[in-house]
Every structure is written in C-alpha cells, then in structure tokens.
Amino acid sequence: MITVKFAMVKEYNHIQMSLKGHAGQAPIGQDIVCASVSILAYTAAQTLSLMHEEGRLTEAPIIDMESGEAFIACKPKKDYYGEALHTFFVTKVGCSLLAGNYPQYVDIKL
User: Fold this and answer.
1) Which residues contact 30 (CB under 8 A, 6 or more apart)?
2) CA–CA distance, 17 with 2 (Å, rounded to integer)
3) pTM of the prediction?
4) Are 23 and 2 in contact (CB under 8 A)?
5) Contact indicator for 37, 45 with CB cutoff of 8 Å
6) 29: CB partners within 8 A, 6+ apart
7) How does DSSP classify residue 84?
8) H helices within the chain, ranges in order?
9) What's the CA angle centered on 102, arms 98 and 106, to 5 degrees?
C-alpha cells in the first residue's frame, strides 16, 4: 500500500507531500501503480526544481526520493504561491485518480 499525504503550513509559506510504501500490484519493475505514483512525484519534484532555478521559491525545494519513500517540500515566494500549490494539486489529483481506481494499493491521507 502506498500512503500519500499532502500538507500546507500557511504561516511558514510551506507546502509538502510525502509518499510511503509499495503498491504490491505486481513484481518490482512491472507494477503500474508504483510507476504511476512515482512519475507523479518525479514530475512535482522537477517542476519545483525549475521554479527554484527561475527564482520563484525562497530556497531550494527539499526533494528526498528513495525506493518506497518520497518527501517533497517547498517555500514559494508570495507571488508564486499559487503556482507551487497548483503543482501539488495536480499531483494530488493524479494520486486521487489512482486511489479511486486502485483503492487496495493507494491511500490518500488529508
């Protein structure tokens, strides 16, 4: 089971997500659920890295991705908070679709 959590801490202008676990839908390398969640996480991480390069974040995003675990967080500048939030929102929508189609493999904690 993959557990996905999203959080916003407005007082610190901080947005984050964490993913833990393995879906177990198929053997490693063949698991479409794990691959789907992974690409969503990698896309969010890359988007935030680009935002940092463009000067839209107050500091470099925290991106810690390992097998079966990922943590992604950022502190966007005030004018770009909506853009950063949208990045997490799109990732959340993708994970929600997976949780709806594969509830035995993906759980979203709000």
Assistant:
1) none
2) 13
3) 0.93
4) yes
5) no
6) none
7) H
8) 32-53, 81-101
9) 70
How far lies 53's CA from each of 5, 49, 58, in Å? 26, 6, 11
Report CA dihedral (63, 12, 15, 109) to the nearest 10 degrees: 110
Six-digit token pair at 101?
A: 């189609």
At 86, list the tokens: 């949208």
Tokens 């909506």 correspond to 82
Q: In angstroms, rounded to a whole number, what is the distance separating the alpha carbons of residues 72 and 58?
A: 15
pLDDT in tens, 63-109: 999 989 999 999 999 999 999 999 999 999 999 999 999 999 999 99
Query: Contact 51/73 with Cβ under 8 angstroms?
Result: no
